[in-house]
Amino acid sequence: MAIRTTNGRGMRYDSVLDTVGNTPSIRINRIAPDNVTVYVKFEAFNPAGSVKDRLALSIIEAAERDGSLKPGQTVVEATSGNTGIGLAMVCAAKGYPLVVTMAESFSVERRRLMRFLGAKVVLTPKGLKGFGMYTKAKELAEENGWFLASQFETSANADIHEATTAREILADFEGERLDYWVTGYGTGGTVSGVSRVLRKERPDTKIILTEPDNAAILGSGYINTRNEANQPTEGHPHFNPHPIQGWTPDFIPYVLQEAIDHGGYDELLPVAGADGIAWSRRLAAEEGIFTGISGGSTFAIAMELAKDAPDGSIMLVMLPDTGERYLSTPLFEGIAEEMTEEEHAISLSTPSAQMAAE
Ligand code: PMP
User: Fold this and answer.
1) 173, 215, 229, 315: which could form a disulfide with 178 (CB 3.0–4.6 Å)?
2) pLDDT reported for residue 208
3) How sure is the predictor about 357, in pLDDT bands with cuts at 50, 70 and 90?
4) How far is CA 319 from the centre of its chain?
5) Quick check: 148 pLDDT over 90?
6) Is 243 in the pocket of ligand 1 (CB under 6 A)?
7) What residue ranges define each of the domains in the chain, with the CATH number in brackets?
8) Strands 147-148 and 267-271, how do they pair?
């Protein structure tokens, strides 16, 4: 096999913001069953490491266009992490101050990442769940005249997935079958935006949506109440805390409502967080694809689908972010810090082990 060469992109970028999107669709070669071909759309390739970079850039530039965000104005948002990290990257690049509200239950490295990117992080009590951090962001915007990014309500969310994510999928699968597209939801921006395009351009593609089995709020059939601004006015009664960070808040977001109302998915399948963690570990250790718990969970559903899928089916699975964001979470539980017995044995197998012993 000849040595690999690269040619560069043949261009220079004017800003880190121009590198958002155009993430690769990558074939899974070792852990998927033989009857299907599985690709993952790996959103960790975005500059701040997640699918939410698309949304962050879209929110800020839509608000710049319509004048609702003034130069130098502070941006505020409630976010479990990836939106905050994406917004921090965009705000840093464009020079806006950013304040993020976040429940204290989310991973510590997310807070520190946002602060590293220049944002301020205000923690809200774990007991108040997603609704608590959301209320805090709203209050801060009202009291201080800050720009509330409103990821759960803004049309800039699904619009950017229609304009970018979906177009990338069409281009990558042009002239090729695409039998299943699999995704989870947090705000619902990915599924609402991509399904607009797939329904029109790829009507044969089955859209599979998934949510945590212990927080199956869509599956419950109950839609929470919302106010005139489309913000939730109650937490969802079927919500329970789940380990799939970034997925399923404790309310059904307005952005997701579009997919519900317009048949934006064919099937809704629950997934156990433990299965998501197990598949995320296998993706890393057996494919070299390092994604978070939501990516593993989406992949887990693809593996379920594969059991009954017609031979030769082609699937595309969304992997929303990088696994590096989960070092202090259950994803890394049991990953040793000290040498394991096997590693000790390897160490003892060469002469210098003798020197260390002396
Ligand atoms: N996975 C992770 C890790 C996320 O942060 C998000 C966004 N909150 C999603 C999945 C879901 O994306 P969307 O908001 O577009 O539904």
Assistant:
1) 173
2) 98
3) low
4) 7
5) yes
6) no
7) 16-45+165-332 (3.40.50.1100), 52-148 (3.40.50.1100)
8) unpaired
Would you say residue 108 has pLDDT above 90?
no
* Amino acid identity for residue 158 in this structure: A
Q: Is the CB of 86 under 6 A from ligand 1?
A: no
Using pLDDT thresholds of 50, 70 and 90, give the confidence band for residue 109.
confident
Does the annotation mark 52 as catalytic? yes
Displacement of CA 193 from its chain's centroid (Å): 14
138 among known catalytic residues? no
Q: At 96, list the tokens.
A: 């806006």
* H or E element that contains 124: strand 120-124
Please report, for residues 52, 256, 332, the alpha-carbon distance to residue 327 in angstroms, rounded to integers and kept in the order given.
Answer: 19, 29, 6
Lowest-confidence region among 109-113, 184-188, 213-217, 257-261 = 109-113
107 close to 326: Cβ distance less than 8 angstroms: yes
| C-alpha distance from residue 100 to each of 97, 109, 288, 310 (Å) | 10, 14, 32, 45
The pLDDT of residue 356 is 66
Instruction: Report the distance separating Cα 162 and Cα 228, nearest Å.
Output: 25
Residue 339 Cα distances to 244, 281, 323, 342, angstroms? 29, 19, 22, 8
Strand partners, 210: 184, 269
